Amino acid sequence: MELGLEGKKAIITGGSRGIGLHTGMLLAKEGCSIAFCARNQNDIDAATAKIGEQGDVTVAGFQADLEDGDATRAFVVKAIEALGGVDILVHNASGFDMSGDEQGWMRSFQVDMMAGVRLVEESLEHLKKSDSASITFVGSMASKFHFGRPPSSYGAAKGAMRVYANEVAQAHGKHGIRANVISPGAVWFEGGSWDQRKIENPKFYASVEKSIPLGRLGTADEIARAIAFIASPAGIWINSAHIVADGGQVASVD
Fold first, then answer.
1. Mean of the pLDDT values across residues 19-37?
2. How would you label 218-236 residue by residue, b for 16+ Cβ within 10 Å and e otherwise?
3. What is the pLDDT of residues 156-200, one digit of tens each?
């Protein structure tokens, strides 16, 4: 299937590792130019090289702390300038709070929610000029299912993200801008949280694998494929949707 991504311009938050990195690599392979942000410059340099190997496209990486509103907005401005516009936004970064303390709640609010809001606000007028504008938020199945952890801000922030995405889709569909949320379940990638759990608690990791109908965790590349399709012109009629990508881990029906 032709995704229609050749020549498109994509901005990705949290693009130096995991789902964000694999999304950038896949979009670049399909002909997209990529601008992304991360916190660590060494990680940015390594990711820029990996994404750049995928195709003859522009790749620009920027250092940004998404807890900082001004830094977030500055990143978007620099990204749009580097790409010469924007067609695709992917908000992948997360504060990933599991502590449940006030500091964790504030980090989730700033990174998961407000960084997404700022990304949209700074990009909106440029997205209106695109003939295939899309916004994809990377959520989590923790936004609809309790996995047995103590209360924290992670699921709540991802739930708020789903509501916001719907509001963006409803308000700006008339401008040709789509907004969707893709919610992964447990996803393994090297250096990620599930990689750490596999090392530290292999018995628990094996029990999670067993609980998933497909018998394993998802991969960052598999989530990236879902994002690429939903964000691409091939997914043009998918709007204001919550797309589950968990391999059947959550045994429920919406």
1. 98
2. bbbeebbebbbbbbbebbe
3. 999 999 999 999 999 999 999 999 999 999 999 988 889 999 999
Mark residue 57 as left, alpha or beta (left: phi above 0; alpha: psi -120 to 50; beta: remaining): beta
What are the residues whose beta carbons fall under 8 Å from the beta carbon of 56, sequence distance 6 or more? none
Q: Are 125 and 146 a contacting pair, CB within 8 Å?
A: no
pLDDT of residue 214: 96
| Two tokens, residue 153 | 């801000």
Q: Which long-range contacts (CB under 8 A, 24 or more apart) does 141-148 make?
A: 141/183, 141/184, 141/185, 141/244, 141/246, 141/249, 141/250, 143/183, 144/183, 144/250, 144/252, 144/254, 145/250, 145/252
Task: Tell which residue, 77, 94, 48, has the closest CA to residue 187.
Answer: 94
If you average pLDDT over every residue of the chain, what do you get? 95
* Topology classification of domain 9-189+219-245: Rossmann fold (3.40.50)
Helices (H), 128-240: 153-172, 193-200, 202-211, 220-231
Contacts of 108 (CB under 8 A, 6+ apart): 94, 95, 96, 97, 153, 154, 156, 157
Residue 150 CA to residue 160 CA, distance in Å, equals: 19
In the chain, what are the domain boundaries?
9-189+219-245
> How confident is the model over 82-111, as pLDDT tens digits?
999 999 999 999 998 888 899 999 999 999
Comparing CA positions, the residue from 158, 176, 160, 155 lying closest to residue 88 is: 176
Q: How many CB atoms lie within 10 A of CB 248?
A: 11
Q: Residue 131 contacts by C-beta under 8 Å, 6 or more apart in sequence?
A: 176
- Is pLDDT at 254 greater than 80 in this prediction? no
